[in-house]
Amino acid sequence: MSANESGTGGVAGFAAEIREVTVMEDRARVVRRGAACLAAGRTVLRLAGVSPIAGDKTLAGSVLSGPKAERISNLRIVRFLK
Hints:
The protein contains 1 helix and 2 strands; from the N terminus they run H-E-E. By secondary structure, it is mainly beta. A hairpin with a 4-residue loop joins strand 1 and strand 2 (28-33).
């Protein structure tokens, strides 16, 4: 089993720059954008500095290049608190 298949692999230090911030009375919307070249299979991306109250429904991803069969099957946030 490879690191990617076990869910323990990924892209260390994945960076997603803040591109847009909208501040509202009771919350804020922060848009980050980043890119990574990934191999086929399960991959875990770790991004530090994200609010612990961020929700899965606000997470988005897309495949920018590669064979048409490539797709993103699942995106979710897993919190690791220090």
